[in-house]
Amino acid sequence: MSREEILTRLTEAVIEGDDSLVVELTQKAVDAGVEPLVIINDALTKGIRIVGEYFGSGQYFLPDLLLGAKAMDAGVKLLEPLLVGTSREFHGRVLMGTVQGDLHEIGKNIVGMMLKTSGFEVVDLGVDVPAGKFIEKIKELKPNVIGISALLTTTIGRQKEIIEVLTEEGLRDQVKVMIGGAPINQAWADKIGADGYAEDAITAVEICKKLVAAS
Predict the structure, then answer these.
(1) Taking the CA of residue 187 as centre, how many other CA atoms within 13 Å lie in the half-sphere pointing to its CB?
(2) The whole model's pTM is what?
(3) In this structure, which topology does domain 93-214 adopt according to CATH?
(4) Residues 66-101: pLDDT tens digits?
(5) Thinking of the domain 3-83, which architecture would CATH place it in?
């Protein structure tokens, strides 16, 4: 296969959600002398954008979206060691975590994976994250956006608490706040003063891009 054929097939492999084939073709592209950033931008990212379009149109469903994201992530992980010393442009840095008292993470992980594959630098604090940990990492990492996940009606109040602590610490105007989770809606986001809310991973990426552009 020519370089162009490898990249085209790699894009298709991401769309198909075939992570093993993505790894194989990514290695072939490297062996053919294709620059890692070209592989990411012209094949892997192109593929996940098409997956997102299919999901948005109803042609793909959540499992398809997750498979596509995992496939792209497999390719990116293979390339990461080769990116040392190169300047990879990120849309922005996103700090994510599930609030204290809540151990749910599937939705957060999907959003994080989609953000990574869409060109964001993502730092995931995991689950059961207290407000103080969010604040500590915001001061240390200076993210453009924080994503606060809560999946229980008993823990959504933690999202409000974190925003209040941000204000108390004088950090609220330095970072955009996105919230998500099954019990969350736009009305709750408006009530607690969040900057963004998304009900699915594709929307989360689009809102995140808008928030970073506006910051």
Answers:
(1) 1
(2) 0.74
(3) Rossmann fold (3.40.50)
(4) 899 889 889 988 998 887 666 566 789 999 999 999
(5) Orthogonal Bundle (1.10)
